[in-house]
Amino acid sequence: MPESVTKLPPQQDVAPPSIRRMTLSEPFAALHKEVDRIFDEFTRDFGRRPLSRRFFEAQPLMPYESSFGIAAPVVDVVEKEAEYQISAELPGLEEKDVEVGVADDVLTIKGEKKEEKEEKTKNYHLSERRYGAFQRSFQLPSGVAKDRIEARFQKGVLTVTLPKTPEAQKREQKIEIKTK
Question: Is 98 helix (H, G, I), strand (E, B) or coil?
Answer without folding.
Answer: strand
